[in-house]
Amino acid sequence: MDKKRGNGRGRSSLMRRAKRGMRGYPVATIAYYGPDDQFASKVAVGIVAREGDDVIALERWYSEDVDIRQDPDVTQAILEFIEQYDVKSVLATDGILGCPHEEGIDYPLGESCPECPFWADHVYEDRGQAAGEDVQIVAGCAWFDEEGWERLREVTADPERLEDDYETWVAMVEKSIRDMRDQGVELEKVLLDVDELVAWCEEQDRPVDASARADLAAEKLRERHEGS
Description:
By secondary structure, this protein is of the alpha/beta class. The protein has 7 helices and 8 strands; from the N terminus they run H-E-E-E-H-E-H-E-E-E-H-H-E-H-H. The longest helix is centred in the last third of the chain and has 18 residues, at 210-227.
C-alpha cells in the first residue's frame, strides 16, 4: 500500500503551541519516528510535570499508511492528551528522530533494526541530527550562578520550587537536561540576572516564579539565536 501524506487538519494548533517554546512546566515533548527521514509512522508524547522530574505519562500512536504528522485524528488525540496535564509548554519538531522500533525490545541490543535499513546508514547523533538534517528541539533553561540563585530564593514567589541549596539545584537541573535530551529535547542554559528578572516581571505585571523564569529564558534564547 502506498504511504499517504494525509490532510494535516488540526495540526496548525499543535505547531503554534510548539513555536512558543519553553513557557514553563508541565512540558509535553513530541517526537516523531519513521522507517526513514521522510515518513513518520510513530509519535511519542511525554509529559514532564516539574523541572528535574521524570516523565510522568507517555503515550504512543502508530500509522502504517498515512504520515502520522498529517493524521488529524492523531493530532486531536495528542491535543486531548496534553490538555489532561494542563501543559504550559509543547516542545516538538516536524523532523524525524529515528527508527520507530525500540532497541532491546523489537530487535537485539547493539544491532541495527532489520526493518529500517535506512537508519543503519544514517545514524542520528545525540543532538538529534538525522540524515544530515538537524531535527533537534531546542529550548531555553533558566540558569543562575550561586550568588544569583541565593538572591532568587529571596525574591521568588515560589521558593518551594527551589531546592534547599545551590549544589542540589544544579544537580536537579543537570538531570533535567539529560532526561529531556533522552526525549529529543536539548535544553540550552540561559544565565539570568535576578535583578533583570525582577524588573522584567514588574513590566509584565506577573510574579517572579518558575513560569516567568522559563519565559524570560525562552525570550533570551530567541535573541541569542537571532543574533548568531
